[in-house]
Amino acid sequence: MSTEGPALRAAPPEEWPDTDPPRHPGEGWSAPPAPLVVPCFLNNTWVDAPVVDVHRGMREIRVRWPPSGSAAAGLSPHHLVLDASRYRPVPGLFD
């Protein structure tokens, strides 16, 4: 009998196709002060993804994955909302 359980996958709480990226309703969401790329935990690995929006109060970010011009050209780009456990902050992220 195997002691290994099923593989766990990190699932973002929200996801949208890149063809129609919505703007988040309500207060707190805004574009980052400058173009930023942050290390994010996606599909069980750390990758660098460009930040689209930040929520300063909740410390959540919205990223585009895969990024434009990436090696994952066959994948449809999506916008993913990530909580603080799924990314590593970089200087200037919430300025």
Folded structure, characterized:
The model has no long low-confidence stretch (mean pLDDT about 75). Strands 1, 2, 3, 4, 5 and 6 form a 6-stranded antiparallel sheet that branches. About 20% of the residues are buried. The chain has a domain at about 15-20 and about 25-85. It has about 100 residues and is mainly beta. It has no helices and 6 strands.
Alpha-beta classification? mainly beta
Specify the overall morphology: globular
Largest sheet: 6 strands, antiparallel
- Element-level helix/strand string: EEEEEE
Number of strands: 6
Q: Share of helix among residues?
A: under 10%
Low-confidence stretches: none
How would you summarize what this structure contains?
The protein has 95 residues and is mostly beta strands.
Helices and strands, with pairings:
Elements: E1 14-17, E2 29-30, E3 37-42, E4 45-55, E5 60-65, E6 78-82
Antiparallel strand pairs: 1-6, 2-4, 3-4, 4-5, 5-6
What characteristics describe this protein?
single chain, 95 residues, mainly beta
